[in-house]
Predict the structure.
Amino acid sequence: MADTTSQAREPRAQLRPVRFRGGGFRTAPRRFVGLFVFAVLILLWEAGSRTGLISALVLPAPSQALDAFMDLALSGNLQKHVSASLQRLVFGFSLGFTAGLVVGAAIGLNSYTRAGLSPLVAAIFPIPKIALLPLFIIWFGIGEGSKVATIFFGCFFPTVIATYGGIDNVDRALIRMGQSFNMPRWDIIRKIILPAALPAILSGMRISASIAIILLVAAEMIGAEFGIGAYVLLAGNLMATDQLIAGVAMLSILGLIVNWLIGTAEKRLLNWRD
Amino acid sequence: MDLAVEGLSHRYGDLDVLRDIDLTIHEGEIVCVIGPSGCGKSTLLRLLGGLEQPSDGRVMQVGGQPVGSLNSLTYVFQDFALLPWRTVEGNVSLALEHHGLGADEIEARVADVLARTRLSDFRQAVPKQLSGGMKQRVAIARALAVNPAVLLMDEPLSALDSQTSELLMYDLIDLWQRERFTSCYITHNLAEAVRLGHKVVVLSRRPGVIREIVEIDMELAERVVSDLRLGQIQKDLWQMVREEAQTADMELADS
């Protein structure tokens, strides 16, 4: 005790600045770092292939994959593959998302549909839709029907769950406010509940879009003439690993584009969030 | 329009929340309701405006509505309840859009009410840009836009810091001077109650019954913080609430 008081009386004897110890856990955006890592990896990969460190059989060089891609583009088949895939993706995704939104809203807003449908959704959601592909082929035919249906069901369930989860989490105070102003039920749903659930719905959309791309390739591996999945499958069967890498890179870019689109939508529609 | 509460009781399951409340809120007066936390103040307010159904008793509207009233019993909430994706004017017009008014009439009402609450410069702002006090002003503007008969205010100043709430209290007093609105005002702040209330209703701890109704016949404009009479009334109220608050504070939530 005596010590501390004597220290307090002589502030000038020991003059130390307070050390900053609050930092270190908040990440800040660092532009171009991601791009840099990507470029370095590709360069290392290319260098490894050229020096023979990576055998061409194990992994073709990026330049070889690019050559394969250019061949595909020059042959005119690129457009056919991409447009076939995009068509299935857009159809399956938009139908599945829309239906999921409607059913999710019904589960979120009505006690009977919730009691009736949510156990069903919980039971079917975890089934890998690829396992049902043979059934879909029998039901919807070997053509476009089964492929679109696979994507449809893959997108439908995550959207249902995201939508009614989002509706469940809407601030009750806002709903009560709407009721206190005598807003009709439909107005409360349209002007309060759905906008408030939008963040959850959009993050569900992110998930179902990724699932759609995964299922697209799986579906195209069965009986499709054109499509990025068919191209990748053929390349694999021929051990044409350069084409395989080119196809996989296309899928990755497709995923990036979809992600960017949804990110832009989020920024625009949800700029009211803190 | 008066609001008459007759023999109102409310239970949540086995839990008695309010018991035998009889109360009349006369046109043009502000009735403040105070009481320890958990005494059912907010429940009483929800019952008054029909957001909850009483287990017993009834709430009656006595007399005609004011001209042009779209929603006679209108709330101002503690947490503002503004839609964060709508601008200030969007939040105000939300209360008007479903009444089949023309765009001109909505615009006129919004402009009028924003001018009355001195928010005209902030029409296009969104809630995240506004301070707590401004948010509550927007909520009050929204409530005034429907020309209510009775304003039901649920601790409207509790979410604000003390300086902002002081400012907003002056605004409310000013507003009452101009418009003589009728209001039931729930608060746990005794100073607010004696500054704003023509009547102060003291509720006991749960189950809430009316312990006393204190009338303060003094012009709102004359009630300054340093007034001795007000100080005395506030002291008396504190004496009444103190014991209840102490006991309520010691209670376990599930007993």
Observations:
- The domain at 61-269 of chain A is CATH 1.10.3720.10 (MetI-like fold).
